[in-house]
Design a protein that fits this description.
Elements: H1 6-32, H2 37-46, H3 51-63, H4 67-79
Helix pairs in contact: 3-4
Length: 85
Amino acid sequence: MRKPRIGITLLAAALFAAAATYAVPRAADAISGLDDPARVANGALDGAFDAMTARREIEAALAAQDTELAQSFVDLAGARHVAID
């Protein structure tokens, strides 16, 4: 008769518990933020809005003679601490 391998089972359980400890709070945070439009927009801007993007959008708004839109990009850059010329 074979000996049960409890050590492997305990190791697997510990690894699953560690993974759950890491993943569950992040998943709960992501799900709770889905109904907040400002939070969703900030998340989308995190990797996409930089100085080059701000400059391009400001120049495009000014070319279209939309000073309000250009000012909104200047304000957004200031709020997100993005340095622009």
